[in-house]
Design a protein that fits this description.
Order of helices and strands of chain B: HHHHHHHHEHEEHHHHEHHH
Structural class of chain B: mainly alpha
Largest sheet of chain A: 2 strands, antiparallel
Oligomer: heterodimer
Shape of chain B: globular
Strand order of the largest sheet of chain A: 1-2
Mean pLDDT of chain B: 84
Number of strands of chain A: 2
Number of strands of chain B: 4
Mean pLDDT of chain A: 83
Strand order of the largest sheet of chain B: 1-4
Radius of gyration of chain B: 20 Å
Helix content of chain A: over 70%
Amino acid sequence: MAMLSGVARYRVGLILGLTLLVASILVPGFFGMTTLGLGLDRGASIGIIAIGLTALLIAGQIDLSGGAVFALSGIVSIVLQPSLGIWPAACVGVAAGAAAGVLNGILSVVFRVNSLVATLATMLIFRSVAHWVTASQPVAGIDIMFSLALAKVYFDIFTVRSALFLAAILLLHFWLTRTVPGRNLFAVGSNASAAEASGISTDRMMFLGFVFASTLAGVAGVLQSLATNTGSPVFGSELTVAVIAAVVVGGTRLEGGRGSALGTLGGVLTIAALTTAMEFQSVPAYVQQVVAGFILILLVVLDRTVRTGTPTHAAAVASA
Amino acid sequence: MTDIALTMQDDLGNPRFNRGNRLAELLSRNGLIIAILAIVIYGSLASPVFFTAGNMVNVLTSMAIVGIVVVGMTFVLVVGGLADLSVPATIACGAILSLALQPMIGPIPAFVLAIALAGACGLVNGLLVGYIGINPIIATLGVGTIVLGIVQAAVGGVIVYGADPASAALVKSRVLGIPTIALIFLVIAIVGNFVLSRSFWGRWTIATGGNYNAAQASAVPVRAVKAGAFVITALCSGLSGALLGLTLQSARPLVGTGYEFSAITAVVVGGISIMGGFGSVPRAIAGLVFVQLLTNIMVLQGVRTPVQGFVLGLLIAGAVALDVALRKRGAA
């Protein structure tokens, strides 16, 4: 049992190691710089959304609308390019993401709608708006050269996007482990009323959590649209499962109060490695979906059935 | 378990809990009927086509397909299972398999097998949610992805066409001017209503959703009841998918997209709380009628599809927020 819980505690590293091992055996040249850089760039979109979701899940809430916000922000940043220019349009795109988060926050925190249902509804709303604005057609940006610059690979491995993701993960790690608001976030997620009683404004933290999550989904969407010079209403429809899987692989609990930035990093890298390996082997998209779904279910089941640490009486009572 | 149901009814009828919210109560009881009447009146004034027999049959047909899912989804919400997001996958399972298996084993066995396999997907959902205790949204999202992937892989990711015109004719036929498919929906709704409001299983479902621990203490098999709700939903959406496949005589993997939202919208607009413990099939169907008539009018008025999605999203958010608000006032 001790070994089992040890395995459960460091499972992120273990899963990542195993994935990389299998991928390097199955895919020739997997450890080439080009492949790794490509994989990292792929993972960056999932990763940036996952950063926001990690913080929100720790606070005990969830956001299912990330994929739709991803598409909507990207579209906004492309559609406004001719009138505003590239940079201001990108900023408005990110702001659109933040506005989406405000709507989620109002519904979940102010109106007390269960966050799953609230963000399910807003997902439908944002996706509809994205289809509405674009008449369900992909829209193209004004400057393809800018996209090429954004997709440029530095030091053989980093793109702007993946460097941004790694920097953001380190910032999140620092914020969660070394600052007071970060610690408060865990308190809010583990027991909201206890946190409220200790003088933490739980409502405010949760509200900001929603804004944070959607803003980052917006950032990811804008980066994706700028890098491909396209905004499309169908972008990000398959991201929801992948992002939740990445965060959950990283050991963040869906019930809140537990999670870490480095765990999410491991989860994102695992999903990215899997996706890249499967794409190199030209596995059909639907089989990739099956794999992502299986990983998600498997890990949530593991999280439920294997408890980390020594079981105390309190924990035994709580889990009974 | 009878005690729990009785206590809950007492709570609802207890004047202490209702003081000063006659209006709130009136709105929550009869608001939907008023809204349906209003929309029927608006529809007949705004569009000459609305109140014709042909249009009503159209509404009835499209209502039947999603309505069968609504009956199942009612159980999931009442038992406190939040929502079943694997519906598009189980509908696709029903539609694709009932057509793809026709040449091999004949139309009727294919129909039955497709529904049974959809039910098996629901069993997986039920085990994950009821017995392992995983968040229903995550479980059904994951299982839905897996099932849809497997179904696509099984048919090679392409569109499947029907091989048996006779079965299509049967589904599309009419009895006394009413589409057969609507009659099937009616039967499912009556059975669903009977199970939820008259049988021991329905009492258990309501008790489990109302107070899980109390129901468990009263020897209700809470885990099985919770799992059962997901099996019922999956069987319903499998049936719905199979009927849809036979009607269209073709099925693509994304055939069920959006049905989960339509079903959740209908149930939530029907005033059934997502917190569980309360609700009935007729209420959910009233919600469905409202949503379907609203959609029908939007289509007749030429409102574009994305805008319809936008309105439905707002409707879910609004209905749930209203439910929470009314509840808070009722408990104050």
